């Protein structure tokens, strides 16, 4: 019991000394070496972001003004598959998946996209790679590491790109080289 009392008194004494040192340091601002340095010039609040910087959160609005949020992107529920830009790119989902249960007990995607059901629902079956474990051995069912579809596949929306994208797929790069030659 005496040890706990000594420890509590010691901690209290340290806190008092730290508080006194803090207050004493703040009281003598004129003697601080940085006290005479003028503040750095700052850009006006109404100025837009400089150059090509992305201001995704405020979208160029001043910090003291409330702005309307952008409209939510709508899901393109057209069942038209988009082309892929590079080999092994996960395909996007061409339909809405609102309300789909995807957890450790159930995967709504597999109702249509499992190899056994794909013909019935006219849905593309999941790739054979989804049936492989990390040692490239084939499994009878979907690999547990490929079970949560939304880790790689995203729903197609009408969202506008946030930044410019100059990506060219390999086919267009090769065709440009052939034209140049």
UniProtKB/TrEMBL annotation:
Keywords, alphabetical: Electron transport, Heme, Iron, Metal-binding, Periplasm, Signal, Transport
Region spans: Disordered: 31-51
InterPro entries: Multihaem_cyt_sf, NapB
Protein's UniProt name: Periplasmic nitrate reductase, electron transfer subunit
Keyword Transport (UniProt): yes
Signal peptide segment: none
Superkingdom of the organism of origin: Bacteria
Chief subcellular location: periplasm
Family from the record: Belongs to the NapB family.
Protein's UniProt keywords contain Transport: yes
Subcellular location: Periplasm
């Amino acid at each position: 019991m005496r040890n706990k009392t000594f420890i509590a008194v010691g901690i209290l004494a340290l806190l008092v000394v730290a508080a006194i040192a803090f207050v004493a340091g703040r009281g003598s601002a004129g003697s601080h070496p940085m006290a005479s340095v003028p503040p750095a010039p700052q850009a006006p609040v109404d100025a837009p972001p400089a150059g090509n910087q992305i201001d995704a959160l405020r979208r160029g609005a001043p910090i003291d003004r409330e702005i309307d949020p952008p409209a939510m992107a709508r899901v393109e529920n057209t069942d038209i598959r988009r082309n892929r830009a590079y080999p092994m790119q996960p395909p996007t989902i061409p339909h809405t998946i609102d309300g789909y249960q995807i957890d450790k007990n159930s995967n709504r995607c597999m109702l249509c996209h499992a190899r056994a059901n794909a013909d019935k629902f006219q849905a593309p079956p999941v790739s054979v790679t989804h049936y492989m474990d990390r040692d490239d051995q084939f499994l009878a069912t979907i690999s547990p590491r490929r079970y949560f579809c939304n880790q790689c596949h995203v729903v197609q929306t009408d969202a506008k790109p946030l930044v410019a994208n100059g990506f060219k797929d390999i086919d267009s790069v090769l065709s440009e080289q052939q034209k140049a030659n």
